[in-house]
Amino acid sequence: MERISFHTIEKKWQKIFANEKLYNKNGKKFYCLEMFPYPSGKIHMGHVRNYTIGDVVARYKFLNGFNVLHPMGWDSFGLPAENASKLNNLHPKEWTNKNIKTMKNQLKMLGLSIDWDLEISTCDENYYKHQQELFIDFYNHGLVSRKETYVNWDPVEKTVLANEQVINGRGWRSNAVVERKKLSQWFFNITKFSDELLKDLEELDGWPEKVKLMQKNWIGKSFGCEIEFNISDSDKKIKVFTTRPDTIFGASFIALSNDHNLKELFIADEKFMAFKKECDKTGTTEEALANADKLGFNTKLFVDHPFLKKKIPVFFANFVLMDYGTGAIFGCPAHDQRDLDFATKYNLEVIKVVQNNDDILKSKKAYVGDGKIINSDFLNNLNIEDAKEKVIDEIEKKNIGKRKTLFRLKDWGISRQRYWGCPIPMIYLNDGSVVPVQKDELPIKLPDDIDLNSSGNPLKNHPTWKNTIHKSSGKKAIRETDTLDTFVDSSWYFLRFCSPNHSVSPFNETKVNYWMPVDQYIGGIEHAILHLLYSRFFSKAISKNNNNIKITEPFKNLFTQGMVCHETYKDENNNWLYPEEIEKLNNNEYQKKNDKRKVFVGAAESMSKSKKNTVDPEIMIKQYGADSVRWFILSDSPPEKDVQWSDVGVVAANKFLQKFWNLVQTIASRKENNFNDEHDKKFNGIINTYIQKIDASIKQFRFNVTIALFYEIYKVINDNLNTNLNSEVLKSNMINVLKLMTPFTPHLARECLEFLGCNNPHNWPIINANNLINNVKFAVQVNGKTRDVITVKKDISEIEIKELILIESKAKKYLKNKKTLKTIFVKNKIINYILND
RNA sequence: GCCCUCGUGGUGAAAUUGGUAGACACAAAGGACUUAAAAUCCUUGCCCUUUUGGGAGUGCCAGUUCGAGUCUGGCCGAGGGCACCA
What we know:
By secondary structure, the protein is α+β, with helices and mostly antiparallel strands. It contains 26 helices and 35 strands. The strands form ten sheets. Strands 26, 27, 28, 29, 30 and 31 form a six-stranded mixed β-sheet that branches. Strands 2-1-24-25 form a four-stranded parallel β-sheet, covered by helices on one side. It is globular and about 105 Å long.
């Protein structure tokens, strides 16, 4: 038998796929989208997995008659281009476009059903021009603001660092101690949509619960109230926010953030300034925060308790945040752990106001459970929820506070002091005002002549770029030299795909209204919060700004795939080794190829360059073929879980596909026409049942199960080759099986279909209910133990099966001479005899 | 610390609403074919029994049920999210 050349058929079919799009004009629309890649250089196995899953979905929907949009583009702005530029002396634009070219070719090698006519790249001015337009729209609708905020400032690089660029409080490149610096920055007012972003999660039935929960926690809605405390013997007040107003009678101190307004009273106090400095130092890393001791500074001030004749001391404390609530709290040590820690340290009162039997002082554990309110005057004997309501009513009556809902979600800071990003279309006038540029001046293009080697913001350093004219007044103005966070680029690209060449506005409204929402979005779990939240925000904001667009949610169904892992290897000196540097010995140990030294095998971890446990998809495709790589990446684990890449695994996939080709060849040349209707019917039934199972498993994204079913089908067909099965029946069933395989191994399946003379490969087999298998396997249990499994006709009755069992079942010996108390009969599944012994 | 998810062979995993545990694949051992190797194919996989057969068994302990991998409670372990959010 002739061995198949996977490369030959891949080349042949990729040419055909390039012109064969997934549009069925009369079908229902289906927008299939995978998260677009950052063009970092080459594709990695994570991309292979992501885009293979997407391709299966897109092709499956197309074969089922849907009109499928399946685009691809490039998330091509970002810091790595600037870093690479410094390293290789290559302009970010050139570096990026070179990578795009390489990666596009690699993606094509996978045989994906992408419509490349829709390709977009976010660093293309035809894309970011419209992003600037959207920015101006947002600005005009009050969704953009300018605020001062703290940033990580690298004093050597003279630039702002992202959190992940700060390592142990130092800049990742300069190693300088990072400072907290207040900078004026642009923000999208995402918090205006807090409630909608939270509420609309409920309608996202097609999203993983986990992702919805993460978003919910991130938005962090909480109910409570504000309370104003009078500072004793003064007309000043302190406003606090609390979610536990029911514990007001347990209040024993007030704690202020050290950025709270009241600090003005203490700026001359050296001790306070030293305390504040100490606190600011621990502010940099999460770990430091978590382990930091509670620190306080006693102001010697007191406030009056609103309901008791009692004075409460006021402290500055390092654990109170300025940017949440009012920057001030009241402490109730008995029922909040942080408050208790603080109270223990500074010897403050601990008053129990919720009934419980714990010894709080001894255990140093605050009681946060439910219970009856005690020691609380008019709140006594109420439960917590009722007490909250009642005390807030009292507070509102006394006019010292009101109900309040707070969100953890903060506005989205979008200013970046970088070159390789979308310029922010704002200008500064001489009188200090800031205005957007006019839309007809767009795009504000990035200059090509840029010096990335000196420190600071490259656009700011550019000699002329920032100088401009305010068009309506003719006066001189200065451009904003910050660029947009690259998350902005990816917050609307899915809209642009609907009309990627539309030039007069960001998108053609008719097309957006037709294709949106994305029916299936597929990508990594690492984007569970930010990218998805920002995209949801954009969709809502755009729909609010433009009455012709109605998208409440951009992504109807979301699938988050797991990572691709690989074993890790180290030599004796703890240096990481690439898989291709090692070889396996007969005793299952490994050694280095070059010097035969021992290699230590570590756990499988997600592929990363730093651990050298990567496998190059292009090499794998060249060695085993695209279909084998696609087949393996889907076969071993459920797609939402991590999968471990293994070379033997892809070899096995390759062998199986080769065998499958051989089987098709055998079927094509087989001639057996001894008609046996019974046999043919039975075979039809088996294959039809498999079609049904495969269809169901694809719908549920259980591709590992789908592939297991293909292995079973192979066996069934192979076992039938030497029977008197009619060759035409065999062939027509094989054609159906190949159609099922098209989404998984498009090149091989289409080659086989062509080989078998199928001239309509673009449809999905229809399951004929009459053809399904008519038998079921039926378990016979005695006292709950399975004693036999018999094959019987479907829907057999209890009486019939009982008769059968007494005649021919192995279980009958257990029933002999025993009294049956009762039987449990479950149709098509099981019968259980309960005996009295 | 709070919140969430998950624990099934040597490995990755199947088991639709509680109803045959381990499908399918990898690895391993044994065998067939072959002068030999490669390739291919077959068999095996815990305990007792020569076989037929019987028993145990889904992290641990209890419970509900005719019947639990699946449901409930407690414990142990692994992974993920948030990080002093009042």
